[in-house]
Amino acid sequence: MRNIFAIGRRELSAYMTAPIGWIILCGFVLMFGFFFVVGLLQYDQAAADAVFNPYAADQINVNDMIVAPLFGNMLVIALLAAPALSMRLIAEDRRTRAIDLLLTSPVRSSEIVLGKFLGAIGFATVLVSTTFLYGAILMLLGEPDPGIMFANYVGFILLFGTFMATGLFASSLTENQVVALIVAFGLNLLLWIVGWTGGLMDEGALKSTVEYLSMLSHFEQLSKGVLRLQDIVYFLTFIGFFLFASTQRVEALRWR
User: Fold this and answer.
1) Residue burial 110-127, b: 16+ Cβ < 10 Å; e: rest
2) What does the radius of gyration of the chain's CA atoms come to, in whole angstroms?
3) What does pTM read for this prediction?
4) What is the DSSP string of 220-243?
5) Total domain count for the chain?
6) What's the rounded Cα separation, in Å, for the pair 99 and 167?
7) Rounded distance, CA 99 to CA 92, Å?
């Protein structure tokens, strides 16, 4: 565990000292703030219109009009940000030959992968923590469902973790960070949209499998405040799979 935490601290420090880390952090804060303000303005306009239509007042809901769209937009931000954050994890070490030092040290391949993933998740946690202020504002001025907000945060962290694990695997395949970014984005996008093809299929085992593989179908349940074991297992399974694949790739580099 000591090796894992040491590598994790190194990676987190690299994010906090590199320009790309601050660019993504500032971009994430600005975009999330923009979507939050837009949601508030739309909610305010709907509330004002409801004065002249009492029947519409029952349809105005903070959870549906602010929380759900806000986290939906966060997913798009994560889809774009995760490949940029993860592209350097192993590819940069391979380019600078720093990976040779790690591979010749008394550190297991699994510890290298877990340490780098821990550092990436640490920075992702920093990103998510910047949104707590907006949640506090909603709790102070409105009446959002705490359970729905909690489930959305759980789902977002799990999905972000899956994106980062996919990016880590892509980074282990090449020395070129741009290639790693493209591969990671492609894999994440595939998991994102694979469920869309399910609507074009007839009922059967293939359609059920395709729909199960879709990230969105699992996150939708969490966004409604429904914490189902099968959805949590889905994300943890993909995270475990890509971490295992990354470990095998790093082990292959050790014996090249």
Assistant:
1) bbbbbbbbbbbbbbbeeb
2) 20
3) 0.86
4) HHHHTT---HHHHHHHHHHHHHHH
5) 1
6) 17
7) 9
Number of residues that this document lists for the chain? 256
The domain in which residue 38 lies consists of 2-254
Give the residue carrying structure tokens 């595939």. Answer: 190
Please state, as a whole number, how many other Cβ atoms lie within 10 Å of the Cβ of residue 52. 7
**pLDDT per residue as tens digits for the range 30-71:** 888 888 888 888 777 776 766 666 665 566 777 777 787 888
Q: Phi, psi (5° rounding) for residue 176? A: -90, 120
**DSSP codes of every residue in 148-206:** HHHHHHHHHHHHHHHHHHHHHHHHHT-S-HHHHHHHHHHHHHHHHHGGGGGGGSPSSHH
Q: What is the pLDDT of residues 181-208, one digit of tens each?
A: 999 998 888 888 776 666 656 666 666 6
